[in-house]
Amino acid sequence: MEDLNFQHQVRARASGTRRSAVVGVVASGNLEVLVERALPDAQCVVDIRTAAMGFGEIWSAVIGDFVERYSPGGLKFSINDGGARPDTVSLRLAQAVRLIAEDGQ
Amino acid sequence: MTASLDDVARAQRARRTSFNEASARTRLELMLDAGSLVEFIGPEQREVSPHLRIFDLPEQFDDGIVVGHARLEGSPVFVAAQEGRFMGGAFGEVHGAKLTGLLRAAREIGSIPVLILFDTGGVRLQEANAGELAIAEIMRAVMEARTAGAKVIGLIGGRSGCYGGGGLIAGCCSALAVSEPGRIAVSGPEVIETNRGVEEFDSRDRALVWRTMGGKHRRLLGAADVFADDTVQDFREAALELIGLVGAFGPDRLKAEHERLAGRLRRFGTCKDAVDIWTAEGVADAETVPDLPADRFIALADRIGRTSRDAR
């Protein structure tokens, strides 16, 4: 297992009122993303535990692209990864942002 | 009236969503009254397995099971749903403790039914002792909850089926609903072949596996009480039907169940294949059963009748 951590300054706070949401499952080629509204509005943190070692540069690029595209301010993402491909990671991150943008708990 | 509109939308989605392919969370979201699920020990609490890290294996924040309380057609229910894609839905220490705790809550209250959406290969090998203990605790908790008056309904239609200790727990439930892809057994096909030889059970013969462990056979044998088509809405309706059907539990019901099982062994003990059992049950053209679509199979199973004689 490899632990990775990325911290970004972002333009704007993510919309919605939900406190947390979870998408995906930890399986081969898949991952779960737990997203929590837990940070100051201009910050975004992504914690990753992955079964695939040595892909830090690709994670960095995928997370950088995601933060640029969605501006997920105030959100902390915690990822358990079972060796998902970058496109699956991007999809799950987008799903997580959409889910927490909903109203409710 | 927003709630009822939400429920109409939920039912529409549930009707076109395969139970087999959905995740544990999607099954619960679409099966229960819209927005009614309140989770206990949710993923944000990060109660992960204490064992998987030792083996350098990935964890899941809910340890592969969702437990909580919700409403079904307006009435309160306790629910548990295993995620069959994480570690094959297998029982570990935390995973098992969450289900035990839910069943003990049901025991304390007594009147609220429990729905268990099984999707499991059995005990997680990496935490074998803790997992085996969990199975024993859950079986005891199921029987205590039933004794206290709670109905415990098992719903089986996930990709991992219901194997190993999961099969034992299912055997303790008040009633079971199963779909065609749901399989119920203790030892899996490969385990039987490894231990008893290929003459006993050829695990590569998929048709043999399905007609021995698959949902249709379990329904015809009386192990499962209701056969559901593979949609989330069908499982919701099956759960409601079973909650209405299950009677009071006590020593008489256990005795009746033992008699039913003894009678089953007398009648079918010498049968070499599931097809022989179906023929003995009076099914015409028994070899066509695996090909029957769900609606025709349900009609056939209903014609043969509930084999339970007040026991399952």
TrEMBL record, chain A:
Covalently binds the prosthetic group of malonate decarboxylase. The lineage of its organism: Bacteria, Pseudomonadati, Pseudomonadota, Alphaproteobacteria, Hyphomicrobiales. The keyword Ribonucleoprotein does not apply. The modification O-(phosphoribosyl dephospho-coenzyme A)serine is found at residue 28. NCBIfam families: malonate_delta. One of its GO terms (cellular component) is cytoplasm. The keyword DNA-binding does not apply. It comes from the Bacteria. It is found in: Cytoplasm. Keywords: Cytoplasm, Phosphoprotein. Subunit of malonate decarboxylase, it is an acyl carrier protein to which acetyl and malonyl thioester residues are bound via a 2'-(5''-phosphoribosyl)-3'-dephospho-CoA prosthetic group and turn over during the catalytic mechanism. This is Malonate decarboxylase acyl carrier protein. Belongs to the MdcC family. It comes from Bradyrhizobium cajani. Its main location: cytoplasm. GO terms for molecular function: acyl carrier activity.
TrEMBL record, chain B:
It holds the Pfam family Carboxyl_trans. One of its GO terms (molecular function) is carboxy-lyase activity. InterPro entries: AcCoA_carboxyl_beta (IPR034733), Acetyl_CoA_COase_Trfase_b_su (IPR000438), ClpP/crotonase-like_dom_sf (IPR029045), COA_CT_N (IPR011762), Malonate_beta (IPR017556). The lineage of its organism: Bacteria, Pseudomonadati, Pseudomonadota, Alphaproteobacteria, Hyphomicrobiales. One of its GO terms (cellular component) is acetyl-CoA carboxylase complex. Keywords: Transferase. It comes from the Bacteria. One of its GO terms (biological process) is carbohydrate metabolic process. Residues 1-251 form the CoA carboxyltransferase N-terminal domain. This is Biotin-independent malonate decarboxylase subunit beta.
